[in-house]
Specification:
By secondary structure, this protein is an all-alpha fold. Helices cover 51% and strands 0% of the residues. Keywords: Signal.
Length: 192
């Protein structure tokens, strides 16, 4: 009997070697509000919904209020002083890893790990509803002076608009949350 169990376990081990586990999209059943042609829209939408879920879990798990959750996070998130370890859930690291693999986030880049030259990031910025903000972000990116800390007060009241401007919500998630987590990620994350 022990020999049979050993053989079965060995067979499972051999057949699973070299296979990477697939990422489990937890929010694929939600409306796909981000659409950037030629990009990994499933990942972008997952990043948005997972970010907001992390905020709700930390700041308003009862009501899931954008106003309260974003309000509590934005200033410290955009200036990099949020307690990211206490906000993250089990979905966070795999998303950051996938964003790095897609080259949306870059490990060795300062002051932000967000790759502003990536077509997905350009699409996100191009679709921000607030024209003045969109122009300001593009000008800062073009002049190579973009820094998330410049937007701490500008985004402070964003929570009440989060449902109306999903691209800006994702931009805040990428710039104020995921790119900050690159600095605290373990070096040898398991593959998903």
């Amino acid at each position: 009997m022990k020999k049979i169990v050993f053989l079965i376990l060995t067979a499972i081990l051999i057949t699973s070697c070299g296979q990477e586990a697939k990422f489990d999209f937890k929010f694929s059943n939600k409306e796909q509000v981000i659409s950037c042609s030629g990009n990994n829209n499933a990942l972008l939408n997952e990043a948005l919904y997972s970010f907001e879920n992390d905020l709700y879990t930390k700041y308003d798990s009862i009501n899931n209020s954008n106003v309260k959750a974003y309000g509590a996070f934005i200033y410290r998130g955009m200036d990099g002083s949020a307690k990211y370890e206490s906000i993250m859930t089990s979905n966070t690291y795999p998303i950051v890893k996938m964003l790095i693999e897609e080259n949306i986030l870059i490990k060795d880049k300062a002051p932000s790990h967000l790759n502003y030259d990536h077509p997905a990031v350009q699409c996100i910025v191009d679709n921000i509803n607030d024209e003045e903000l969109r122009i300001a972000i593009k000008a800062l990116v073009d002049s190579k002076t973009m820094n998330p800390k410049l937007f701490t007060s500008r985004f402070r009241n964003f929570g009440r608009n989060a449902d109306r401007d999903r691209y800006l919500a994702l931009f805040i998630g990428l710039e104020g949350y995921y790119q900050q987590i690159v600095n605290i990620m373990p070096q040898d994350l398991p593959t998903y």
